[in-house]
Amino acid sequence: MYKAKRLLIYIRVFFIMLAAEVAGVFVKRSKEYADLWIVSERGVDARDNGYHFFKYLRNEHPEINTVYIISNDSPDRQKVASLGKIVEYGSFKHYLCYVLAKYKVSTHIDGYSPDILFFHKFGKLFPDKSKKVFLQHGIIKDDLGFCHADQTNIDMFVCSAVPEYEYVKKTFGYKDGILKLTGLCRYDNLKKMDAPTRKILFMPTWRSNLRTCNKRKFTESEYFTTFNSFLNSEELARLLEENDYELIFYPHFEVHRFLDCFENNNERVQITDFKNSDVQDLLINSDILVTDYSSVFFDYAYMRKPMVYFQYNDAAFRAQHYKEGYFDFKRDGFGEVVATGGEVVDSLRRILENGVQPDDVYLKKMNAFFKFNDTNNCQRNYEAIIAL
């Protein structure tokens, strides 16, 4: 059923794309499409490197003909519209912009396209002379097969740390000049609060094997039972009460359709989603991060804040999700690696007793990891794109 539906979508996208190619011949010399830059994330949001880069362009280089691709029903639409021109994701004008753009910039590979899956598979059917930029939406630490050179068609691939850059260069197969060590645009906005926020952020990533499951199968998964048990544990409730803290649960975007499955018997635990919370705001306005494998912990390390890794079944994750790359959590991680909810609570207690600061051993790792520690990431990316 899923494959048949996807095939119909592919056919539709193919014919709309052909129509856009024809229409583009007649409008390509118009002012509206001249030297056009399109910027996006996933077409439905504006909270990541795409948004911060677009904001930079509008503030620092308003002379550039730039549009942001976003759906009309996105909760982020208005804040982007206040900066500059927007185009509805998936509209015919989006197809035209895609055909005629000089630069295509996104946090996701083919994220600037009208259909990411179609263009990731068949993008080479529509060759063009545009420069395609992968801003990234995190720091790569695993062997991501879909990011390898033989799976993509990009001209610039952003890295932020020397170990990441060296690993991608060695493993992913890109030609010289495509990888750029320029830093993530959203890091320009990261800051550590002066006073404690009294919030713990719990942000686990998703699992590939749960992508197509229904709610019944999801609630039977180890992912759900482990994390749901932790959220409702007496140990966590006691820790939060004793220290006057609140825990915010915000799992990966792919898990949000299952959020109503999670129980919440603790008034100090808040379950939130994409529509009601911004990831970067959550990262900034919290004191401690609990995650499993999500690369969002690099953002936390950039702010030099403490964290805990809750990895309940490492073998299953590696078998079903991403293969381990250069980053070994126990060797290279910026916090303790634990396997049970009780151990998470113990680790959180130690961090609280340490004044909500990372241990020296982890702080040294944070200081050594990043190539940059400034607010010039957008500028470096802009200069690298222009140099293409």
CATH architecture of the largest domain: 3-Layer(aba) Sandwich
The CATH superfamily of the largest domain is: CDP-glycerol glycerophosphotransferase, N-terminal domain
SS field, number of helical segments: 16
User: Which class of secondary structure composition applies to the elements?
Assistant: alpha/beta
How much of the polypeptide forms β-strand, as a percent range? 5-15%
The N- to C-terminal Cα distance equals 43 Å
Task: Explain what the structure shows.
The two termini are 43 Å apart. Helix content is 39%, strand content 14%. It has helices at 2-27, 49-60, 77-81, 92-100, 116-122, 162-171, 215-219, 222-231, 234-243, 279-284, 297-302, 314-320, 329-332, 341-353, 360-369, 377-387, and strands at 37-40, 66-70, 85-88, 103-106, 131-134, 142-143, 156-159, 179-181, 199-202, 246-249, 269-271, 288-291, 307-310, 323-324, 336-338. It has a seven-stranded parallel β-sheet with strand order 3-2-1-4-5-7-8, with helices on both faces. Strands 11-10-9-12-13-15 form a six-stranded parallel β-sheet. It contains 16 helices and 15 strands. The chain is an alpha/beta fold and 388 residues long. Helix 2 (49-60) links the parallel strand 1 (37-40) and strand 2 (66-70). The mean pLDDT is 94. The protein folds into two domains: 2-183 and 375-387, CDP-glycerol glycerophosphotransferase, N-terminal domain (Rossmann fold, 3-Layer(aba) Sandwich); 199-369, CDP-glycerol glycerophosphotransferase, C-terminal domain (Rossmann fold, 3-Layer(aba) Sandwich). Helix 1 (2-27) crosses helix 4 (92-100), helix 2 (49-60) packs across helix 16 (377-387) and helix 9 (234-243) packs parallel to helix 14.
